[in-house]
Design goal:
alpha/beta; 6-stranded parallel sheet; binds flavin mononucleotide
Length: 165
């Protein structure tokens, strides 16, 4: 096993004051020292997936950059809010793009999922939807431990957004 584990973190929120992003900032202090976290390259400018675009001009650079980062990582960690009991649409769109690549990058990739949400369940339903998509893509999805941060506003400092729970 490698001396250092490089974990690519994909955040599901675009919000500046995001609780999920705040949880990501708390991770290095909670993780073993040999685990290194790297943020995924930006992909919020990706167009909605359309096979016609793919056929006409190939994969957008942002999708290629994301796929390269996933391939280079030892594992991927999604930290995402739940939107309407499921995953945020823009993030699913990005995964739809990379999933159409020949050597799709999630194949046999260890994947873990965490979530913060305003609700009591902490985004549990969203996590189970991600598991389904990742299983289809032949990722190795961690079943446990499960990390749900429910009622997120009460778990982070209101000023600094530091995790206080
Ligand atoms: C479009 C939308 C849908 C949402 N749906 C859910 C939901 O299904 N379950 C839930 O617990 N919270 C839901 N929320 C509330 C989010 O959990 C809350 O806004 C959370 O802070 C978002 O994460 P962030 O702080 O990282 O941006 C929803 C929020 C939005 C904007």
């Amino acid at each position: 096993m490698a001396d250092q584990l490089n974990v690519l973190v994909i955040c599901g929120s675009l919000r500046k004051g995001s609780y999920n992003r705040a949880l990501i900032r708390a991770l290095p202090a909670l993780a073993p020292p040999e685990m290194k976290f790297t943020s995924a390259p930006d992909f919020e400018t990706l167009p909605m997936y359309n096979a016609d675009i793919q056929e006409a001009s190939g994969f957008p650079p942002a999708a290629q950059d994301l796929a390269t980062a996933i391939r280079a990582a030892d594992g991927v960690l999604f930290v995402s809010p739940e939107y309407n009991w499921s995953m945020p649409g823009w993030l699913k769109n990005a995964i739809d793009w990379v999933s159409r690549m020949k050597d799709q990058p999630f194949q046999e990739k260890p994947v873990a999922i965490q979530s913060c949400s305003g609700g009591m369940l902490g985004g549990a339903r969203m996590q189970y939807h991600w598991r389904m998509s990742m299983t289809f893509l032949k990722a190795f999805v961690f079943g446990t431990p499960e990390v749900f941060v429910g009622q997120a506003a009460s778990k982070f400092d209101k000023e600094t957004l530091e995790l206080t729970d």
